[in-house]
């Protein structure tokens, strides 16, 4: 079987018999497929042949099937007016005003990331339809959330934000994953504890991307300056740099979540959020209670004074004291609030 090369084709036809083969998608036992008509018309007009032997190559479930393949000879009659022109192809659809092949992208139905995005968006639309028609999904997906603290609350809040359609999440923490953390903090595993432990901020981001690849998450390893903590003279410059960096982070985000485990670590972020007029949410856990509180009047209010508005608080009590179990049972409730 030879290729149809223009410069050598006529000389080649004088020496050997031409045998034309093509892939035939048809599965009729005695009839060649429709593409053969187009090929015969082209061969007749382009190379002026009146007869040609052909081979219809066919497959069955991806493998060659010689029993189903056909071999034959075609006699070609050239209509008047075809001698100097190549006829239009038969069977092509119009694509942008001309007959050409049409390409269809199957990425949305095959790419795992796009499938995950589609499934998440559908779930949010169902939530809006059934429970909250006024929910603005576009506003949620474009919102930039800053999470100060990547511990028990930080992990749970990050997952809740993703579930509600937030796609831009930044986590700030300077701690490392300890052996006791994976049992209480949902974004870490035992592998994150080995070799001294990974930084929580970076490990949490990697976990978020494994859960939902479309999330735009960033982890920043940084200590939050706290009042009442002594600072060495050689640490002055680094502390000032941390303060400036924290200010820039708060200014670059739409909402801030204070999820650290001490009041001192929330003091400076609270002042910076009040200064930049940002919606700020504090979530705090006790041994048998939790507190969720919103700070600030918000960017749409004319009152820019720092305020605290308790959203929800709850106390869990029992005849016996189980501090650890009580604390962990309150985490999902506090994060959801």
UniProtKB/TrEMBL annotation:
Residues 315-337 are annotated as: Disordered. Pfam families: ATG7_N, ThiF. One of its GO terms (molecular function) is Atg8 activating enzyme activity. Residues 127-303 form the THIF-type NAD/FAD binding fold domain. It comes from the Eukaryota. Gene3D superfamilies: NAD(P)-binding Rossmann-like Domain, Ubiquitin-like modifier-activating enzyme ATG7 C-terminal domain. GO terms for cellular component: phagophore assembly site. InterPro entries: Atg7_N (IPR032197), Atg7_N_2 (IPR042523), ThiF/MoeB/HesA (IPR045886), ThiF_NAD_FAD-bd (IPR000594), Ubiquitin-activating_enz (IPR035985). This is Autophagy-related protein 7. The lineage of its organism: Eukaryota, Viridiplantae, Streptophyta, Embryophyta, Tracheophyta.
